[in-house]
Amino acid sequence: MSYTNSYAAAVLERCEELAAFSEEAGRLTRRFATPALRQAGEAVRSWMEAAGMTVRRDAIGNVIGRLGDPGRRTLLIGSHLDTVRDAGRYDGMLGVLVAIACLERLRDEERSLPYAVEVLAFADEEGVRFGTGYLASSVVAGCFDAADLERRDGEGVILSDALRAFGGDPDGLLGARRDPTDLIGYYEVHIEQGPVLEGDGAPLGVVTAIAGQTGGQVVFTGEAGHAGTVPMALRRDALGAAAEFVSALEALARDRDGVVATVGTVEVEPGARNVIPGRVVLSLDVRHPLDSVRESVLTRLRERAGAVAGARGVGVEWQLGKGVGAVETSARLTALLAEAVSMSGHPVVRLPSGAGHDAVMLSRIAPIAMLFVRCAGGISHNPAEAVTVEDVAAAIEATTRFLELLG
Amino acid sequence: MSYTNSYAAAVLERCEELAAFSEEAGRLTRRFATPALRQAGEAVRSWMEAAGMTVRRDAIGNVIGRLGDPGRRTLLIGSHLDTVRDAGRYDGMLGVLVAIACLERLRDEERSLPYAVEVLAFADEEGVRFGTGYLASSVVAGCFDAADLERRDGEGVILSDALRAFGGDPDGLLGARRDPTDLIGYYEVHIEQGPVLEGDGAPLGVVTAIAGQTGGQVVFTGEAGHAGTVPMALRRDALGAAAEFVSALEALARDRDGVVATVGTVEVEPGARNVIPGRVVLSLDVRHPLDSVRESVLTRLRERAGAVAGARGVGVEWQLGKGVGAVETSARLTALLAEAVSMSGHPVVRLPSGAGHDAVMLSRIAPIAMLFVRCAGGISHNPAEAVTVEDVAAAIEATTRFLELLG
Q: What is the Cα A249 distance to its own chain's centre?
């Protein structure tokens, strides 16, 4: 095993150890403010301390380790410890553990950085328990919405109560904002969660932007009827309209470079084999690294939905969320990161992130950079999530060089 | 109110009375072998007796009224008393009550028929409770499947036990088959359950055939993935394939006269806004009055599903039931019925039935004829089911003339 590989192997072992901290036997589910998340945080604290860091927990329950004297300019490195239900072992955790491994390696080599580093292990990015994506990083970025404290989980537990039980402090959230004045930037390592790097045969990817996204629903309302007695020409089949819209959405997204558009759920009413669908609700998810492109795609989709419905005498209702704007990574940090990847002997693949990450929130207070690590089959949010020790070693190598270049 | 209208008004009043016999407060649900069905049967028995009929209950719980001496050739007239959940008031019941009204009218006018008439009020056509469509008429036709006696309802009650509690006799079912030797035919009046008569401005329809039908499922299997991170070109979206298939099915059915093809349910897995569908299960329902046309449509649909899936690298699985063959109505009886409609002053609209009826079973032992009555908006299996007193009067008039012509 090569020198860097031994750090990578340790990272993978720690990913296994963290996977044992779960709310459910036999599979990994670790939501915000649960005992499992507390255990994961304590393990990370111990590894941070072993790496020589000073560790604290902030008001939302993030575990934050610092290396470097107070007052120094500081680079933040982070990712999250919470998971989706029946999760993989790398989404989030890998970024935290690679950061710690790099600092251990520098210490082992008796090298030091001319700036401070803080590693942030965020307590809630997936938002599974309370429907609060980016909860923990929004607190650090100072854009937390206090109304979210009243949210309830599936068992009716209020977020503020869960936070107190977790050892956090609802009243301290505003004060937990990281002062941006001394920040060099925010850096995050994450599995790609997609198949691009695997397709390119590259272990690492330099993220150019984090796509903006709009979610919502499209509702088609036709007329239910007996599947045997209403002739085709007299039908106003809501599913016929919905199917045509799904095909149009697919064609439109394929036609615009970098657009991804997805219908992930379909509800059909009344929903019986022998009844013509009277109402169909489709979910909608549209993303692009440029907000203007996303907006234009949404406009065209809405036009198409109207045209499809109109031609069939079917109603259409368009229910979109506010959407999250795209975030560009820092040109300066990203150039250094690309150089670090290249110096590590790997091709520089630049790609946008279609998934959201804590970096979206941190971009409010600091320039950001992100490194993607190839994952098997592009599979994520799934126990089959996998990375190789060689690719993790590549991430440690590139990150270490990035930290040095930044000096 | 015209003379015939008074019989029609009485029929509609009796439909209201029957609607009160329900398993659920506030809506009409009357399944096989329930106290509500027993009450409806007793009411029908009393009206049959008032019309001068001799009434008995057979082993499956059908209420059968006979007018005419034993040994005479006999016309059967029937329909069903059970309903779907949250049903309308006319699907089934109207046919039974129109038959009784016609016999009352003939008696009031001191006219008699040169043959016997038996009115059958079937105890289970919808098959909601035990999943047994045509249960009651299959007993009369002698094609009851004894294995069905072991079926259980949603509460775990076995059909044979329910039948005993209902006053029926599981051991007597084979013997309850109607001897076909003395039968003139079977005649049924039913609401259309579709919009054709309303579109044609005609109160009555003469049924040419009852469509055969094939039901089943089509399963598309692609690959689930993150809606943000998998580029359109690398997706194997099961819903994309399913949508294309739904559009192809619609086009194919529109292209073949008299074909109806319906996808009434869609299941998407995993089924989340931000996950590309990995598996989609569509229900399938295809009907046509000619079995050869139905078979050819199914073959073409299967080819199209294969082509759609193949072009996308998606798998497709085709799971069809046995299907029910089409049934033609008797040319001789139907010609008389058309003459009767015409003599009543109404246009003769000939149309196939896309829905199944008890007549499908009775066709095994007798020539059949069916008369459709226009219903508002073609709506059925719905509390909004509605017929006008004028249209019911037209059905009584045409049926009375049909009975006379048959003599």
A: 24
Residue to test with chain A: of B262, B282, B288, B373, most A Cβ within 10 A? B262
- What ipTM was predicted for this assembly? 0.87
Percent of chain B beyond pLDDT 90? 92
Minimal Cβ distance to B273: which of A195, A215, A240: A215
Q: Does B381 touch chain A (CB under 8 A)?
A: yes
User: Which H or E element spans position B45?
Assistant: helix B35-50
Q: Answer yes or no: are the C-beta atoms of B216 and B320 closer than 8 Å.
A: yes
Spatial distance between the Cα atoms of B348 and A318, rounded to a whole number of angstroms? 45
CA distances for B89 relative to A214, A402, B65, B385, angstroms: 46, 76, 21, 7
CATH 3.40.630.10-classified regions of chain A: 3-211+326-406
Position A1 pLDDT exceeds 70: no
Confidence class for position B133, pLDDT limits 50, 70, 90:
confident
**Kind and range of the H or E run holding B281:** strand B279-288
How many angstroms separate the CA atoms of A273 and B262, rounded?
A: 8
| pLDDT for position B320 | 92
Cα-to-chain-centroid distance, residue A60: 18
The three-point CA angle A357-A171-A160 to 5° equals 65
**B257 and chain A in contact, CB less than 8 A:** no
Does the pLDDT value for residue B174 go beyond 70? yes
Q: A264 and B268 in contact by Cβ < 8 A?
A: yes
A230/B354 CB distance under 8 A: yes
Q: Looking at CA atoms only, how far is residue B194 from chain A in angstroms? A: 5
For the domain made up of A212-320, give the CATH fold.
Answer: Alpha-Beta Plaits (3.30.70)
CA–CA separation, A329 and A370 (whole Å): 8
- The reply to whether residue B250 touches residue A227, judged by beta carbons under 8 angstroms, is no
Query: Is the distance from CB of A236 to CB of A222 less than 8 angstroms?
Result: yes
Give the tokens for residue A95.
């970024």
d(CA A386, CA A379): 8
Inspect the interface and report whether the beta carbons of A353 and B229 lie closer than 8 Å.
yes
pTM score: 0.86
Chain A 191-230, CB below 8 Å of chain B: which residues? 192-196, 199, 211, 213, 215, 224-230
CATH of domain B3-211+326-406: 3.40.630.10
Nearest CA among A234, A286, A235 for reference residue A258: A286
pLDDT at A131: 86
Distance from CA of A230 to the nearest CA of B (A): 5
Mean pLDDT of chain A: 96
- Within A146-216, residue ranges assigned H as helices are 159-165, 196-200
Residue intervals in chain B for CATH 3.30.70.360: 212-320
